TrEMBL record:
InterPro entries for the chain: Diphthami_syn_dom, Rossmann-like_a/b/a_fold
Name of this chain's protein: Diphthine--ammonia ligase
Domain of life, per lineage: Bacteria
Enzyme Commission designation: 6.3.1.14
CDD domains reported for this sequence: AANH_PF0828-like (cd01994)
Diphthamide synthase domain boundaries: 5-211
UniProt source species: Tenacibaculum aiptasiae
Keywords of this entry: Ligase
GO MF term set: diphthine-ammonia ligase activity
A Pfam family assignment: Diphthami_syn_2
């Protein structure tokens, strides 16, 4: 019997690839879950595009508000997922520790004894990006960090040429340290491709990002 699971959803390549991999295993993915602050203004992950993705995936989407103190808020939210929505496992797109810190979702899941599955954990970065191409994911850069990238990268589609360019930079090529963020516009489990529509590229001191 498959286990009821939810994928922590940001709209980016890692959570989408985690969904794809978990779907092929012993998990029944019943929900997408997004943790968001009050009055969210996500620069990397546009909420209007996330709504399109959710419609295309075709399963319920839960947005849970988190606020300070963050650990308590996340613990309460995860407990709610278990008690109200009967979710047994949270699936994340996490690939590695960030600045040598413990995995945040695992830490916040201990209190409620929620299980956590990280299908991309410690995987080879090039293999992860290649898997996206092999299975016809379409992924664009939604936010890039200076000085590694300029604004021309925003909106570009990840392909084999882009992967080779990423390898030349002094970064984690999957952007695990925040060097860049992505949005998925098509995936094997999408019913239809996401329509980005018109957008502008906005810049500040640290980032360039897609703005709708």
């Amino acid at each position: 019997m498959k286990k009821n699971a939810a994928v922590l959803w940001t709209g980016g390549k890692d959570c989408a690839l985690a969904f794809f991999k978990a779907q092929q295993e012993e998990y029944s993915i019943t929900h997408l879950v997004t943790f968001a602050p009050e009055n969210p203004d996500f620069k990397a992950h546009n909420l209007s595009l996330i709504k399109q993705q959710v419609t295309s995936v075709g399963i319920p989407h839960i947005i849970l508000t988190v606020k300070s103190p963050m650990q308590n808020s996340y613990e309460d939210a995860i407990s709610l997922l278990k008690t109200k929505y009967h979710i047994e496992t949270l699936i994340t797109g996490d690939i590695d520790e960030i600045e040598n810190h413990d995995n945040w979702i695992e830490k916040c899941s201990q209190k409620s004894e929620m299980k956590v599955y990280n299908p991309l954990w410690k995987k080879n970065r090039t293999e992860l990006l290649s898997t996206l191409l092999d299975h016809k994911f379409e992924v664009i850069f939604s936010l890039v960090k200076k000085p590694f990238f300029n604004q021309k990268w925003v909106g570009k589609v990840i392909d084999s040429t882009i992967i080779e360019e990423l390898k030349k930079l002094n970064i984690d090529i999957c952007g695990e340290n925040g060097e860049y963020h992505t949005m998925v516009i098509n995936a094997p489990f999408f019913k239809s491709q996401i329509n980005i529509g018109s957008y502008t590229v906005t810049e500040n001191e640290h980032y360039s990002y897609l703005h709708k």
